[in-house]
Amino acid sequence: MSTDGQNAVPALGSREFTRWFWRQLTSMRTALFLLLLLAIAAVPGSLVPQRGVDARATEAYLIDHPKLGPILDNLGFFSVYTSPWFSAVYLLLLVSLVGCILPRSFVYLRALRARPPKAPKNFSRLPASASFETEASIDQVAAVARKVLRWARVDVVSDKDRVEVSAEKGFLREAGNLVFHVSVVVVLVGVAVGTLFGYRGSSIVTEGDGFSNVLTQYDEFGSGSLFDTDDLPPFSLQLDEFTAKFQPLGSAQAGAPRLFRAEGTYETKPGEATKAFDITVNHPLSIDGTSVYLVGQGYAPVIKVTDAQGDVVFEDAVPFLPTDPSYTSNGVVKVPGAEPEELGFQGFFLPTAISGDDGISISAFPAAANPLLGLFVWHGDLGLDDGLPQSVYVLDKTNMKQYLGPNGKGFRISLSRGQEADLPDGGTIEFVELRQFVRFQFSSSPLVKVPLVGIVAGLLGLMVSLSVKPRRTWIRARREGSRTVVDVAALDRVPRDDLPADLDAFLTRFRQALTQENP
Amino acid sequence: MTLEQLAQFSNYAIASATGVLALAFVAYVAQWSFARNVAPERELVAAGKGASDPEQSGEERSTMAGGIGFSLTMLAAVILFAGVLARGLAAERVPWGNMYEFGCAAILFALTSYLVLVRVWSIDWVGPIITGFGTVVLGLSMLVYVPAGPLVPALHSYWLVIHVLAAMISGAAFLVGAAASVLYLVKSRAERNTPEDERVGFLWSIPDSARIDQIAYRVHAFAFPIWTFAALIAGPIWAQYAWGRYWGWDPKEVWAFITWVVYAGYLHARATAGWKGKAAAIVALIGFATFVISFVGVNLFVPGLHGYAK
Fold first, then answer.
1. Do the chains contact at A32 and B214, CB–CB below 8 Å?
2. Rounded Cα distance, A474 and A488, in Å
3. What pTM did the predictor assign?
4. Which residues of A touch B149 (CB under 8 A)?
5. Which of A227, A478, B66, B159 is least enclosed, having the fewest CB within 10 Å?
6. DSSP-assigned beta bridge partners for residue A220
7. What pLDDT digit, counting tens, does each position of B112-154 carry?
8. Each residue of A161-210: pLDDT tens digit?
9. What are the chain B neighbours of A290 within 8 Å (beta carbons)?
10. CA distance A18 to A20
11. Residue A151: what are its φ and ψ, rounded to 5°?
């Protein structure tokens, strides 16, 4: 800015500036702008995967977009809803909201005590007005007016030959408006509290296995910054049986899932009596403030590996993660105990394998009608001793070599249930039996009722504020000879088009009441 | 009837309803185009002229086409109702368990609310937009057709009835509101730019822009609380039961939130100087666009937890 410009505009002191800034921030125009900005700021989170929603998809996106990915990452596009810019918008909106609610509440409290405004001189300048004559006295007119305006706050000013009635109704509109805006703040505070003191995690549990609620048993875990992981409630559970039902082949929507049910037992604390549970989708189990949800499922073939020395070096159920609706699943087996070299297997599992057009097996159905395990084999160093944490679903092939078959391609093992195959190093691998696994989600968000109560109160307030009509009505009656001339006018605080019709209806009621009073 | 016959009947009914609705759209377009030379102010003068007068017959034809359009819309709604009902009976559940069914049921609600509002506020002038949009949505629904069958486990909840019903009712009202907002923009522009003596055509026999704005506001003011309930109350409660969190920024949730924020913006815009009228109507149309994105776009193009609704 040039010096001239500075001279032209009187400098604002810091107090004036603060006041100016505050008035700008709390103006309706700014609130509107921030609302629309919030809508725009929310969009990117639906277009690229979010870390907090699907961490694996985010990593995959970063690998697929080596150039764009890091730029977006730096801009916070993979955690939009906790990013500084998104937070800035909604915090400004919150401040603007509070700055709007507080003064309006004081204005409203004053308005509640205020009397209806006096009648204007000229009724014909109001949006709706009418006149009629009656035999009744002006006092009778005033008394009847009070009765007919029963829902409104009414003031009557009278002198010898003249009476003025001022009425105002519809105070609930602003009350509803304020309730709605306060409730938005309540909801946001409730959500914040629940996030700060809550935790959420997931774990894969295979049939016959159990889960104890300690940090090490989680596959994924996240908690609010004010949650102490030592405070995890000490429950445990045992999964006995998982049932999955699918729409049978040959019917409409064949293969669509119909039922998922996990059954087993749990105990709230070690040593307490065990209780049975039955978790289905939409019907979680609640233990000691934590809810347990069934959020995923798949197959876990039990695999037994014997090394060249004849020792059983591996026997366990290995979860294979489903990748499509027919449960074509991918998985990894790591056998660090194999001699002379560590072994690693990577491959797929098909619950109902059929031969595809090009000879490659595909899964035709999600239920396990013809389970098939296909594996490739690596040997060398699994890298488990480096001390770096490793995903159980990824084989680190840096120090491993793949066994090749006679055709020069990867050596491949295909196993049906109960089958055994020889390994190139002299050992064997066996597909012993098939189990199923489920992914449980454990979550606790304290004060979950606060945002719920807040939003319900907000909805009620909203409905009141959108439906109540604030209206002022004035009636002036004066004696002219032996008759009384009555002038009526009405004004809506929020203009609506039904005012004239309403005034007509009001006049009809008014005159009927007058006739009854003074037949 | 067996379940298969019911499903078959439903398919025929929904296809017929689409055809009838397309004819209704043609009739409504004819209503506008027959009246393109008719000046409503001259109606009284024209009444005295002979029947051979081209203006007079244009007006008559326009009125007749409008009547046909309304009757055909009603017929389409009745057939569609039969189709949606049969679909529910064939699948033995509420008829909105996937995107195809959601499209059909949502248009049924849209047509019903249109027909009711024609009776209440004589809003038959939004007929071309409602029937045109309805025909397109029904046609597109065929692209995501799936045979009638039971629900996936995630939808086994009475919240399916509540959450989706509320979303469809508010969506129907949002459509009527958006149609009124379009005509508000057209009419208020014409009111500013057209001299008195050039005011001919159907546009001048519909209410003035202030009245249209009033109607658009009322429809939105009706829809917004229901949308609040569908997206911010019923949805989160169900999500809490099904997924263990009431809000998780799933793409569907993001767009439902965006829709809510934009319509909240519309309600504020109508009360803000400089935003009243044109700008507010544009915000309402943006709101409807975000509603369509959260209903269709998210399911088709963005992977997320609501993907089963395809």
1. no
2. 6
3. 0.83
4. 247, 251-253, 256
5. A478
6. A202
7. 999 999 999 999 999 999 999 999 999 999 988 888 888 877 7
8. 889 999 998 889 999 999 999 998 899 888 888 878 888 888 999 999 99
9. none
10. 5
11. -90, 0
